Amino acid sequence: MKEGSKKIISALCYFSLFFAPFLFPIAVYFIADDNEVMEHAKKSFLSHILPIIAVPLGIIIIFETQYHPAAIVISALIFGTLTLIVMIWNIVKGIKVILS
User: Fold this and answer.
1) pLDDT at residue 1 is higher than 80
2) pLDDT for 43-52, tens place per residue?
3) What DSSP character marks residue 67?
4) Which of 51, 59, 79, 94 is most solvent-facing, going by the fewest CB within 10 Å?
5) Phi, psi of 9 (to 5 degrees)
6) Distance between CA atoms of 35 and 12, rounded to whole angstroms?
């Protein structure tokens, strides 16, 4: 596999958060024959799982506190911030892969 192709595929694994969060990294992980690309696919897949875990957790907290306004605000802040951080991290990692 060419170096340019490896970089693009690895970066797309991180950017796939916006178009195919789980499918693309999993497909790349099982199809790619390069260890570096597989490593990026695995890291991006794991980072895509974080928001998927955070959203239901926030919903559960809201339901368990019977829609208490403070619980809604705190859940939104904590899990929204976590999701935003993961999005920014994926963008930064994708750009770093392309520029490296």
Assistant:
1) no
2) 999 998 888 8
3) S
4) 59
5) -65, -40
6) 16
Cα distance between residue 5 and residue 79, in whole Å: 35
Q: What is the pTM of this model?
A: 0.80
pLDDT at residue 54, as a whole number: 81
CA 14 to chain centre: 7
Rounded to a whole number of angstroms, the distance between the first and last alpha carbons of the chain is 16
* Residues 66, 6: Cα–Cα separation, whole Å: 49
Determine the distance from the C-alpha atom of residue 73 to the mean position of all C-alpha atoms in its chain, rounded to a whole number: 23
pLDDT of 74 above 90: no
Instruction: Confirm if 32 and 41 have CB atoms less than 8 A apart.
Output: yes
DSSP H helices, the chain, are: 3-15, 23-31, 35-64, 69-99
